[in-house]
Amino acid sequence: MAATARSCWTTRRPSPARRTPGPTPTRCAASRSSTPSRPRSRLPVTPPSPAPTSSPSPPGTPSTSYVSVHINRIDHRSCWQYAMQVTSIINAQLGGPTWTVYLGRRDALTASQSDANAKPPRLATLVAMFGNKGLSPRDMTALSGAHTVGQARCATFRDRIYNDANINATFASLRQQTCPQAAGGASDAALAPIDAQTPEAFDNAYYTNLMGKRGLFHSDQELFNGGSQDVLVKKYSGNAGMFAADFAKAMMRMGAISPLTGAQGEVRLNCRKVN
């Protein structure tokens, strides 16, 4: 049965005198989202046009950054809020669920590259890390299902396909064809689909891949490796509706983690760096 979700967003209008946000009318639109196994119509997503007074992006700046810069200048949405709203919309276009996006969250002033590049931990550590943020093991396993779409760079999964034992040999050989063992050079940026079965559809094939030891990342395969999440992975693999519902709930819980509001954080003018 199709589920109905609400997508809410806020439009802020700057005051002519001080260019500070004025009244904040909120608009909500109900949308119907089917389970991932059902086809969906694909609707175009068109970002607001840049303001006439805005300067063009510097040479070499990705178009996504250009869009983010001007959207923030137009309606004062933070990069985080814009990314979450767009994620919900695109997710529905790919066949997945939508969810309510909490508004008003600001961007952080810091980021940790070392944390992002840290070696993937074992399952027990993953559970503890998510638990420290108020997310349950079920939330963690559901959120990991976002890897049912997208691509990854060779440098991020090289260790997995050459050194892990709990990997399907045929799958490892396939990925090794475009990701050589020697690090460095152009091969580091070579892309591979995270979900080789349905890389452009939001469905539950990710969990089927894990059951066949075809998880592209070490941390993904940890979810199905004789541990506490094996049973849930099997359930999601056989029940797309359960996965979609749990994913939407987990996204809302994640969106409520330690929000920066008021004078905390900032609204970035360029989503690639702090102001």
Question: What are the SSEs and their pairings?
Answer:
Blueprint: E1 3-10, E2 26-33, H1 63-75, H2 79-93, H3 113-116, H4 123-132, H5 137-144, E3 151-153, H6 154-163, H7 169-176, E4 191-193, H8 205-211, H9 218-221, H10 230-238, H11 240-255
Antiparallel strand pairs: 1-2, 3-4
Helix pairs in contact: 5-11, 6-7, 8-10, 10-11
Give a structural overview.
The chain has two domains: 3-93, no CATH class; 118-255, Peroxidase, domain 2 (Orthogonal Bundle). With 275 residues, the chain is mainly alpha-helical. The protein has helices at 63-75, 79-93, 113-116, 123-132, 137-144, 154-163, 169-176, 205-211, 218-221, 230-238, 240-255; strands at residues 3-10, 26-33, 151-153, 191-193. It has eleven helices and four strands. The chain is globular and about 50 Å long.
Strand order of the largest sheet: 1-2
Spell out the CATH superfamily of the largest domain: Peroxidase, domain 2
Helix content: 25-40%
Mean pLDDT: 76
User: CATH topology of the largest domain, which one?
Assistant: Peroxidase, domain 2
CATH class of the largest domain: Mainly Alpha
Tally the beta strands: 4
Please indicate the count of domains: 2
Structural class: mainly alpha
- The number of helices is 11
Return Rg in Å.
20 Å
Give the overall shape, derived from the CA principal axes. Answer: globular
In terms of per-residue confidence, which ranges show pLDDT below 50 for 5 or more consecutive residues? Answer: 1-74
Strand content: 5-15%
CATH architecture verdict of the largest domain = Orthogonal Bundle
